[in-house]
Amino acid sequence: MNDRFRLNNFDLIRLFAAFQVAIQHGVGHLQVGLGLIGTILSLTPGVPIFFFVSGLLISRSYESNSLISEYSLNRALRIYPALIICTILAISSAFVVGYLPVAGVGLCKLAFWFTSQVTVLQFYNPEYMRRFGTGVLNGSLWTVCVELQFYILVPLLYRLTSRFARTRVQWNFALLAAILLFLIANILIHGVPGRYSMWLETKLLGGATAVGYGARSDLASKMLSVTFIPWFYMFLVGVIAQRNFDVISKILSGRAALLIPTYLGAAYLGVEICGLGSGNYINSVLYLLLAATVFSCAYSAPWLSERLLHRNDISYGVYIYHMPVINLFLWRGVSAGPKRLVWALMATIVAATLSWTLVERPAMKLKRHPFKRPS
């Protein structure tokens, strides 16, 4: 099982998810239309993909090495070195182009903001940045905060569940119960996403009003949205897939050519025709089908990632650098259009490649008992 599990395309999948988020943000902020490609990208949301893959791989990593000190070190080395450098460069860019000096930001405020970004409060955005670019220097980082909470919860999940679940069946029941519980929490916090959310919420939640894709606008809901609570069910789907890998792989491995069009067809029908939720607020049934498709892609021609990427993983860099790049483009008054999106993506790729080469890969070499693929 180990060799079959470790030989996969998850690096390639994470890269796709990172570019999906970057392109979607670029399309929105740089006012670019992508036609059919844009529609397909909108149906394959990067953040839910990240959460599923994270649940699958992090749970496996913890099972391989459950020593808390080493588990914590490994997780910190994956997140913080690149995040710290990215934050320094992002804040410096706002200073170099003249925004921060004009805004008159004091050293104490700047230090507080920097500290929040490189600890666990990545969702915090100071009021004095509201006039720079999109108004949020690096809005994508809210998911880093959520991911860090996932990392903390994994040891707790295993220790708590192990107390009363001894067999695989018992584990599966426990995980399914947790998935259902946190799915309900997702609905209560975000509402019922989609075109018909107001009608559904009237029936299911007693008349609550949906905003946008069902996300509520009150402060409490916004704060809950940057906790693990509404997203944990996505992560747990990855955990249960990992723990039942031998069964699921027999069903889904090698079937990406079937699963991809099946998912896209179902997603298009569900979102565009039936008005179901999409993006981060993806309908739960569509999310399960998306997770199955991602799993199938990971284990269909599982050597593809190795051959294309040669174990280079710039996905994290693409994810954390694309919004600072887009904000610089907007602040400098770069006109909208497809060429500007291409330039922004190229700049992001350069930053991500340098981040991987100079920061992330050296940091990951410091991991203790890292999760390795077969040579």
Radius of gyration: 21 Å
Q: In DSSP terms, counting alpha (H) and pi (I) runs of 4 or more, how many helices?
A: 18
Number of strands: 0
Structural class: mainly alpha
Helix content: 55-70%
> What number of domains?
1
Poorly predicted ranges: 196-215, 370-375
| Gap between N and C termini | 16 Å
Keyword list:
375 residues; mainly alpha; globular; disordered C terminus
Structure description:
The protein has one domain (2-364). The model is unreliable at 196-215 and 370-375 (pLDDT under 50). It has helices at 2-6, 10-29, 35-42, 46-64, 68-96, 99-103, 107-117, 142-162, 168-190, 197-204, 219-224, 232-243, 245-252, 256-273, 284-298, 304-309, 315-331, 338-364. The radius of gyration is 21 Å and the shape is globular. α4 (46-64) crosses α8, α4 crosses α12 and α9 packs antiparallel against α12. The chain contains 18 helices and no strands. 69% of the residues lie in helices and 0% in strands. By secondary structure, the protein is mainly α.
